[in-house]
Specification:
CATH topology: Rossmann fold
Helix content: 40-55%
Oligomer: single chain
Radius of gyration: 18 Å
Strand order of the largest sheet: 1-2-4-3-5-6-7-8
Largest sheet: 8 strands, mixed
CATH superfamily: Alpha/Beta hydrolase fold, catalytic domain
Distance between the termini: 34 Å
Length: 295
């Protein structure tokens, strides 16, 4: 979906800009002032997923929010660069091109894994916060079959259009969102519906799923020294808290906070709860305010 087609009521539309940084054409939100914080959404989402968290962070930090390549309003220049390592490298190139030096990277779901990979590459090294970070492989037969199915589907030219038509209904999108364990407000559900109805976004999401490989990142976790905060939620039906707890146990400077009764999209349904954890931690690690005014 091209940035020129962004709906007029899209969150932070006025702060969105188009950035060409090889090999992709990015949609980037740029809000606030202060130490730079990069926000990375998960697979199948876009920067809009931080719509409720941005106003709590932007008074204290300059918040940079790109759509991942091929998803949301960013256009993928190369279909073969949608895996973890490739996206992390291309996001680092985007930061260099824009003169952005993030002091922290906050990633939701798969964005949490990308944040950790970027921290391995970037100098100076940013601190990392993962929100229900997808830091575990699929278990059992799903670990083999699911990536294989995504790979096959991504290679069939008509599949994204078919998926978009079949799943691009309000009822199906509501069902998908409910399956995460989160309750999303009507405006947010409508934004996800707009994404699912776009075949280009589906193509980018399938490409990411097909190329996703976590083994190398997980194997290197014991050597990681960057401070990491992992926020998990007991009601997450996609990435249960044990994934964050297991990942934190492998890393040297990682801690876990588990929030009760909230789902995978916790930063959308309960942004004040997430900000109450994030802001004091960021203040200790990179400076800035430790709290916000909830008006």
């Amino acid at each position: 979906m091209n940035i020129s087609r962004m709906p007029k009521d899209w969150p932070y539309r006025s702060a969105a800009r188009r950035v060409k940084a090889v090999p992709h054409e990015w949609c980037v939100l740029d809000v606030g002032t202060g130490p730079m914080v990069l926000l990375l959404h998960g697979a199948g989402g876009s920067g809009h997923s931080f719509r409720n968290l941005i106003p709590l962070l932007a008074p204290h930090y300059r918040v940079i929010v790109p759509d991942l390549p091929g998803q949301g309003f960013s256009r993928a220049g190369r279909r073969g660069r949608l895996g973890l390592d490739e996206m992390a490298g291309d996001l680092c190139a985007l930061c260099r091109a824009e003169g952005v030096v993030p002091a922290a990277i906050i990633g939701h779901s798969a964005g949490g894994a990308i944040a950790l990979r970027m921290a391995e590459i970037m100098d100076p090294t940013p601190v990392v916060i993962g929100i229900n970070a997808a830091l575990g492989e699929f278990e059992g037969a799903a670990g083999v079959l699911f990536p294989l199915m995504a790979r096959v589907l991504s290679l069939l030219p008509l599949i994204p259009t078919v998926v978009s038509r079949l799943w691009g209904t309000a009822a199906r999108v509501d069902g998908l969102l409910s399956s995460t364990g989160s309750k999303i407000e009507p405006a947010g559900r409508a934004q996800y519906l707009a994404l699912v109805q776009d075949s280009g976004h589906i193509e980018g999401t399938l490409g990411m799923m097909a190329q996703w490989q976590l083994q190398g990142l997980v194997a290197r976790m014991p050597a990681m020294t960057t401070p990491v905060l992992l926020i998990a939620t007991k009601g997450d039906r996609a990435v249960p808290p044990r994934i964050s707890q297991g990942a934190a146990a492998k890393m040297r400077q990682a801690e876990v906070v588990v929030l009760p009764e909230l789902g995978h999209l916790v930063h959308e349904e309960a942004p004040t709860d997430v900000a109450a954890v994030i802001l004091p931690w960021l203040a200790r690690k990179i400076g800035g305010e430790a709290s916000y005014c909830d008006t």
